[in-house]
Design a protein that fits this description.
With about 350 residues, this protein is α/β, with parallel strands linked by helices. It has helices at about 5-20, 60-75, 95-105, 115-120, 125-130, 155-160, 165-175, 190-200, 230-235, 275-280; strands spanning about 40-45, 50-55, 55, 80-85, 110-115, 135-140, 145-150, 205-210, 240-245, 255, 260-265, 305-310, 315-320, 330-335, 340. Bound molecules: fe (ii) ion (2 copies).
């Protein structure tokens, strides 16, 4: 069934707000003018599956991921593929990764994985690579070039300092506001690889980069930060349509830097507060960001979720599915040249950020 875009948005928007099950989206016929074929993909991130002991895992984190997988399985027509955005595990343990993959195995469709710091710093990605695959790679789909980066690397001197145990290193990287942590980075080896990878791609081809940390500098104390972000941005500069989609921040964020659009994805585990509301320390949170409307800030599930994404314009249109909160749409607006929250531009529609002391 072909529908124009306005009808599509009205239909899916209204349908998704009022009814969780069943969920449907109507696929658009792709226009003649774009560089790529229209399609959708699903995105689930930051499940933080956490072992308590033996077979016991934190139930709330399990339930967030299970719910996202169930809802994603009801999408009609099927998204072409799914992404998982990193932090599948809480402390990088085999048991956690296995348990998370078991839940993810119920998701119908191909899944591409991005690694997060919680998956990495126990064994430096060894088990992940044996079970899931490489830590950085690229693939092409219907005229779009997709790149997966491992953006949570850091200085070798930090990684290989004298830790009491690998778990001590994991715990040091897992905390916010941690004086013993270290900034994330992509690193020389991957930058060289990325440069070569992108050299094969035409400048009008839409490019989408998936990373765990933001490839921009938002708030260093929480590692909402990538130390060599500008070097990745420089490699994306020649492309007409470049988008970076990242996890890690557990909240809706979006931004535009030159030609590059940035979008964060939701966590299924818990929402982080906005840095500015928590720390009273200056953050570089993009001016464009509209704080997420939280139905009940004391109920952690109201700001968790997942999203499906359309590539109709060669730029990502993000459709955030937020259990127990109003779904959100952040879509690139060609008239203003940046992503726009379609529902919460007006201050009067927003719930103010909570102050924490
Ligand atoms: Fe996370
Ligand atoms: Fe993370």
């Amino acid at each position: 069934m072909d529908m124009n875009r306005r009808t599509f948005l009205k239909t899916t928007g209204a349908g998704l707000v009022t009814a969780i099950f069943p969920m449907s989206l109507i696929k658009l016929a792709f226009g003649d003018t774009g560089p790529a074929e229209d399609f959708t993909f699903g995105y689930i991130s930051d499940a933080h599956i956490q072992q308590i002991e033996g077979d016991a895992f934190v139930r709330n984190w399990d339930m967030g991921l299970i719910r996202a997988v169930r809802e994603a399985n009801l999408l009609t027509p099927r998204p072409d593929f799914f992404m998982f955005g990193g932090d599948l595990a809480q402390l990088g343990k085999k048991e956690e990764l296995d348990h998370g993959l078991e839940i993810m195995s119920k998701l119908r469709g191909k899944v591409h994985y991005v690694i997060g710091e919680h998956d990495y710093y126990l064994d430096l990605g060894e088990y992940w690579q044996s079970k899931i695959g490489p830590l950085w790679y690229s693939f092409d789909h219907k005229g779009v070039h997709f790149v997966v980066l491992n953006s949570i690397l850091t200085y070798d001197s930090w990684i290989h300092q004298k830790w009491a145990s690998p778990m001590d290193r994991m715990l040091a990287m897992a905390r916010l506001d941690n004086p013993h942590g270290s900034p994330f980075m992509v690193g020389e080896e991957q930058l060289t690889w990325l440069k070569n990878d992108l050299q094969k791609i035409g400048r009008s081809t839409p490019v989408v980069v998936f990373s765990h940390s933001p490839i921009q500098k938002i708030f260093k104390p929480w590692n909402f930060w990538t130390e060599d972000a500008e070097r990745v941005q420089a490699l994306l500069k020649p492309f007409e349509k470049a988008t970076v989609i990242y996890g890690h921040v557990h909240q809706i964020q979006y931004n535009q830097i030159g030609n590059i659009s940035f979008h964060a994805v939701m966590a299924t585990a818990w929402p982080w507060p906005y840095p500015e509301s928590y720390s009273q320390v200056a953050s570089c949170l993009p001016k464009l960001t509209v704080p997420m409307n939280r139905a009940d800030p004391f109920f952690e599930r109201d700001a968790t979720g997942w999203q499906f994404i359309d590539m109709e314009t060669g730029k990502a249109g993000m459709y955030y599915q937020l259990p127990d909160n109003t779904n959100r749409r952040v879509v690139f607006n060609p008239k203003i040249g940046k992503p726009q929250d379609l529902d919460y531009q007006e201050y009067s529609n927003r719930i103010p950020a909570q102050q924490h002391f």
